[in-house]
């Protein structure tokens, strides 16, 4: 369970012979890493800017329904929370693709496709955090990084209601896992001003880069110029199936979790001012076939009280390791939700980083000694983590960006052509890069 704890209180448990590790951000990646290290006998310090656990979960409603692929299974098993994970999630067996009119185009048995690699399950973000914190999980809430020395050894932390209580600490490793719009990443990368971005070239959402090669940014991003409202609908009789409608100027995704169906109703940014009720009504009027689930999900959006609007942007850091500081999860690569792979890759990355950090456990702490070889070993471990994991994450990231080009179309002609393509393009082909990652998982220590 999540336990509120101070930074000093967490530091008291760190043994002199173990490295002092600071994890910034108690999201999926940060919590997974902290719990893995704790299970291996280490005592990382975990902080989050949220005031408490309720705010920590509520601040990121955009990610509150997840479909987790089998790359998370080794993490679930190592944390010994398999039973809790199965109870808190639902098995996803089928993917149902609808034409822009609502008619079912095809059904694919995703469960069978992924069965050789492990489970494919739907879970809410809040439930996943509960599962990952099945053992005690101390977190220092209301805590942020305000200064970070070059290389990451000296960290200034701000705490208190106004962030006016500052303290300076020495750490051997600083892991930045505080999300796609990471504040701490700016301190590590020298990020300043807007990041490089890529935007759709036209209304059919073909994405192209609009960057200045003479001024490379530490972070690149894609802006689909779309977003969408997210909310919950009541669970129905088919909780093993995901439904998606790739429409002409809209997108409707319906994702089962334990006890509910997560709903995402997407639209071009220019249509957001209509509001969820009017836009849901517009989508309903354009569908010629309306299943009970589609009807219920559109009703849920229309009747939701102030549903969250999720801008569909991503980000990718060009480098992860900076001395003794390293990026993890969305701070390293924030995903578009198009392939449903971001949370899975964040957990896989946490597992690989845990391997590298736990291998440092028998070395003298550089925060308490002047041993330059130990500092060099830490830097090497973080560089090795990046070399092992960044190509895998970026392959999945590229797949998400490619799918965005197909999903977010506005013209009826484009939607009709895409419907025809759906008849011949298998789900295996669409997810080929993801399947390749599952076929060759990272070696674990």
From TrEMBL:
The chain crosses the membrane at residues 20-37. Its EC number is 1.14.13.1. Pfam families: FAD_binding_3 (PF01494). Its cofactor is FAD. InterPro entries: FAD-bd, FAD-dep_Monooxygenase_BioMet, FAD/NAD-bd_sf. Residues 20-359 form the FAD-binding domain. Keywords: FAD, Flavoprotein, Membrane, Monooxygenase, Oxidoreductase, Transmembrane, Transmembrane helix. It comes from the Bacteria. Residues 186-221 are annotated as: Disordered. Gene3D superfamilies: FAD/NAD(P)-binding domain. GO terms for molecular function: salicylate 1-monooxygenase activity. It is an enzyme of class 1 (oxidoreductase). This is Salicylate hydroxylase. It comes from Brevibacterium epidermidis. The lineage of its organism: Bacteria, Bacillati, Actinomycetota, Actinomycetes, Micrococcales.
């Amino acid at each position: 369970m999540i336990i509120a704890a101070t930074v000093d209180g967490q530091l008291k448990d760190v043994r002199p012979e173990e490295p002092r590790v600071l994890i910034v951000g108690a999201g999926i990646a940060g919590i997974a890493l902290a719990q893995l290290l704790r299970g291996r006998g280490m005592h990382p310090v975990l902080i989050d800017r949220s005031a408490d656990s309720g705010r920590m979960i509520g601040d990121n409603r955009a990610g509150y329904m997840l479909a987790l692929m089998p790359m998370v299974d080794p993490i679930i098993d190592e944390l010994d929370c398999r039973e809790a994970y199965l109870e808190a999630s639902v098995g996803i067996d089928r993917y149902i693709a609808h034409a822009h009119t609502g008619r079912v185009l095809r059904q694919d048995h995703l469960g069978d496709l992924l069965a050789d690699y492990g489970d494919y399950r739907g879970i809410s973000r809040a439930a996943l955090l509960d599962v990952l914190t099945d053992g005690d999980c101390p977190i220092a809430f209301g805590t942020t990084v305000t200064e970070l020395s070059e290389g990451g050894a000296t960290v200034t932390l701000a705490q208190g209601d106004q962030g006016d209580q500052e303290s300076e600490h020495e750490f051997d490793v600083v892991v930045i896992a505080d999300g796609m719009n990471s504040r701490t990443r700016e301190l590590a990368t020298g990020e300043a001003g807007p990041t490089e971005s890529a935007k759709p070239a036209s209304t059919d959402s073909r994405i192209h880069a609009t960057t200045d090669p003479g001024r490379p940014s530490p972070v690149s991003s894609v802006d689909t110029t779309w977003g969408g409202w997210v909310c919950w609908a009541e669970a129905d009789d088919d909780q093993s199936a995901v439904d998606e409608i790739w429409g002409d100027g809209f997108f409707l995704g319906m994702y089962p979790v334990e006890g509910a169906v997560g709903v995402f109703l997407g639209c071009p940014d220019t249509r957001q001012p209509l509001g969820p009720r009017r836009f849901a009504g517009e989508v309903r009027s354009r569908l010629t076939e309306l299943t009970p689930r589609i009807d219920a999900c559109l009703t849920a959006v229309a009747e939701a009280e102030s549903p969250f609007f999720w801008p569909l942007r991503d980000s990718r850091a060009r480098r992860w390791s900076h001395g003794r500081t390293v990026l993890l999860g969305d701070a390293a690569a924030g995903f578009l939700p198009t392939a449903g792979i971001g949370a899975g890759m964040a957990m896989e990355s946490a597992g690989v980083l845990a391997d590298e950090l736990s291998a440092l456990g028998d070395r003298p702490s550089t925060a308490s000694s002047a041993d330059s070889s130990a500092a060099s070993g830490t830097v090497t471990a973080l560089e090795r983590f990046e070399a092992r994991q960044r190509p895998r994450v970026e392959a999945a990231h590229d797949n998400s960006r490619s799918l965005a080009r197909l999903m977010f179309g506005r013209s009826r002609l484009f939607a009709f052509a895409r419907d025809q393509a759906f008849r011949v393009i298998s789900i295996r082909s669409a997810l080929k890069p993801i399947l390749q990652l599952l076929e060759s998982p990272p070696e674990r220590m």
